[in-house]
Amino acid sequence: MSDWFKLTDELGPEKIVYLHDPETEMKAVIVVDTMFAGGAGGGTRMLPDITTAELAGLARAMTYKFAMIDLPIGGAKSGIWGLPDMSPDRREAMIRSFGRLAKPMIESGVAVASDMGTAMEDVKLMYESAGVEHPNTGLSSQIKDGEPLENHATGYGVFVAAKAGCQAAGLELKGARVAIEGFGKAAGGVARYMIEAGANVVAMSNINGTRYSENGLNITSLLAERRQKGDQALTEYESAESLSCQKLFTLPVDIVVPGTRPFMIHGKNASAIQAKVIASIANNPVTYEAERQLFERGVRVIPDFLCNVGGVVMALVDMLGGSEDDLFKALNHMITELGLDIITRADSAGIPPRFLAEKEIKQKLIDQRTGKTEALSFDALLKTIQVRLNIGQKT
Fold it and tell me: What three-state secondary structure class fits 332?
């Protein structure tokens, strides 16, 4: 019990639920940061080395993400202990077991989604096994450039955040050198939109290491190969230098995009980072110690829970009956506006943007929970966004 107490603060987490199915040997945990607004949501990752503490931090990041755009939903995160090379049958059995045992949580308002090690198909199996209708509608599964639109939304949002960071840093995005940690769907989306904007992606990584070329990687070729070979496409890419995964963060680049696990940028490597902008796919990519160091050096670190809000915005646009164009317009407008605002005010306050955003969000949520202020209802929020961005309306 004392270990759980160490994870709690004035916001949460409210619930930590462990699941075990002896038949399939499925073991999992669901962390609900807060549900005072009526519901909670977040991804489900399937990895062999997850920890409850890590998931608690990720659930809090989801709380911040929803609150950043005034969405009255709390954060949650789930994890299934599983090896990446298990047989498809065993994997499916564990996914189904998770859904069946998570049924009471899902029915109580805890929405699950895909994350590291899981995909949309897995989430559908979870809901099917729980006997609950999956809330997804059509927008996320629409195809763009041969891939589901879901694969584009987070990547484009991170790209927009990086662009806002460049604007604040006085850095031209065109010609900027970019290093991206990861080679999955979100990392591929970031790379795609970076090269479309004229930036030069010089490094990407997977579990086997980093591939780096000072002249730039052939992103178009790599993404085409990824459709057939997955991660192996990057591993087999010959026109680049092979480096360690950690080396990616300290390369001579302008923009670094952390994309996997928490706290990959920390006190021991922050001083070696050469980038001027950090915009993250991953949640909690930078320790507080490193965040302070980077801020003092003038590095623009965009709060991760704003950078990776793309999936949430896509769901909102979908509920409003919006189109693909509406999604990209909403992401560009919301992330740019919020990003530049928090950077400007953080500079004035003399603290890192993430510190200011977390402080303000915590106080806002505490005030709402205690009745000092009233949050927008979900329907009111949707209407506000619809009118503000003209989503799903005829012009």
Answer: helix
